[in-house]
Amino acid sequence: MPDTPNHALETFTNPSPDRDYTIRIDIPEFTCLCPKTGQPDFAVLHLEYIPDQLCIELKSLKLYIAGFRDIGAFHEAVTNAILDDLALCCKPRFMRLNAKFNVRGGIYTSVIAEHQLADWAPAPMVHLPN
């Protein structure tokens, strides 16, 4: 079995690099293989990030994610590997990946991994009245 996806991630220039804004991407059809049994594992990936100078190009993301289909990986390892690859490609100010795996053996697993630039701090939360 391969141990890395076979498609490179691509980026494009952030159209508003002077502003912190959040990009949220839901990927409902993620699959990889259980490294113990070879059976497929299914997950919904919830990606959110605050771009810096670059944004992730969605078609390349789709192809990159599809590349995990034949890769055996534990949930924790594959979630962190994806986050590492995404953060390396676009160097966001902040990025969070929440991988919600489908039930297997009566157990649901969610793995949440985060990346943050060392010199970036989020803006204070704005609380609006009800």
Describe it.
- The protein is an alpha+beta fold and 130 residues long.
- The protein has one domain: 2-Layer Sandwich (GTP Cyclohydrolase I, domain 2).
- 19% of the residues lie in helices and 38% in strands.
- It has 2 helices and 6 strands.
- The chain has helices at residues 58-66, 75-90, and strands at residues 11-13, 23-33, 40-50, 54-56, 94-104, 107-116.
- Strands 2-3-5-6 form a 4-stranded antiparallel sheet, covered by helices on one side. The chain has a two-stranded antiparallel ribbon with strand order 1-4.
- The longest helix is centred in the middle third of the chain and has 16 residues, at 75-90.
- The radius of gyration is 16 Å and the shape is globular.
Quick description:
This protein is α+β, with helices and mostly antiparallel strands and 130 residues long. The protein is built from 2 helices and 6 strands; from the N terminus they run ββββααββ.
Shape: globular
Our count of helices gives 2
Could you state the order of secondary-structure elements as H and E? EEEEHHEE
Strand content: 35-45%
How many E-type strands? 6
- CATH homologous superfamily grouping: GTP cyclohydrolase I, C-terminal domain/NADPH-dependent 7-cyano-7-deazaguanine reductase, N-terminal domain
What CATH architecture label applies? 2-Layer Sandwich
- Describe the largest sheet: 4 strands, antiparallel
**Structural class estimated from helices and strands:** alpha+beta
Q: Strand order within the widest sheet?
A: 2-3-5-6
CATH topology assignment: GTP Cyclohydrolase I, domain 2
* Average of per-residue pLDDT values: 94
